[in-house]
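User: My collaborator sent over this chain with a note saying "see what the structure looks like." That's all I know about it. Can you take a look?
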Amino acid sequence: MRAAQGRRSYGEPRRRPDQAFAGVLHSLSCCSLDTRRQLWYNRAVQSSVVDPSQCFVAGMQSPTARKGFAFGDPRMGLLQPKPKTYVYIDGFNLYYGCFKSPTRHGWSKYKWLDFEKLCDQLLPRNDVLAIRYYTADVSNRAPDNHQADRQRVYLTALSALPRVRIVKGRFLTKLIRMPQCDAAGTYLGNTVTVLKTEEKGSDVNLAVDLLLDCVRDRYECAVIISNDSDLVSPIRVVRHEYGKVIGIINPHPLRPSLDLSNNADFRIRLTARALAANQLPDTVQVGRASLQRPASWT
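Assistant: Without extra context I'll predict from the sequence alone. Here is the result:
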């Protein structure tokens, strides 16, 4: 028996939101997505389904505002549940944007990144449930010959973070002929043989996961760390066809891709301060192994 004033009596099981409000949401099928979300929240608070500790106070500006609705829109005048959020990281776009850019000397000391801490800091009003990191195994190459060793240590350290899942593509290496130029970029009239390495699969894996997680309704907000405009098509589908909120975190020093910007609800620029504040401990314990930050990353 239900207790007075809608409270649960002692020992009564807590109802799941889908059980409690299935009839309400069905009757509101003709309403907008924003209306359904707000009515669900109002009923959830009354029935003690939503935990207020998992909400933030309305009245603070949110980057996720769109079409009159925001998680924490001051016009609502209510506590708002933090949106369920998945983060998708294009590993090589992040690497070349942050650590290989000629304008970002000294950033290599920030490679020992803790993605859970970074995402929580950049998205304080979101409930970050999962982080997908897309990369591929590199090979040792002269004159360094330790690239693969450092990557292996780092990926093993990341595997200790419960919300991070590593998704691997592959490298394709081949010999090709390419035009030769001088330091100023002037063509010298001949070609040379070069060893060309391309990373394959990561952008496709990211796009597939973004769409699959959307269709399975695993998130309300998807955040992509990349500046690759090839991801525009799946982002457009997720945002316009399914009504999801999209955020873009740009790891490059240049302005974000115009195509990505036009299909995002909010954008965040990745800074050295954010990277510096969210590093893994110098020693990470994974099982019986103690993993040390590579010396060249300090």
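A starting point for your reply to your collaborator: The CA atoms of residues 116 and 250 lie 17 Å apart.
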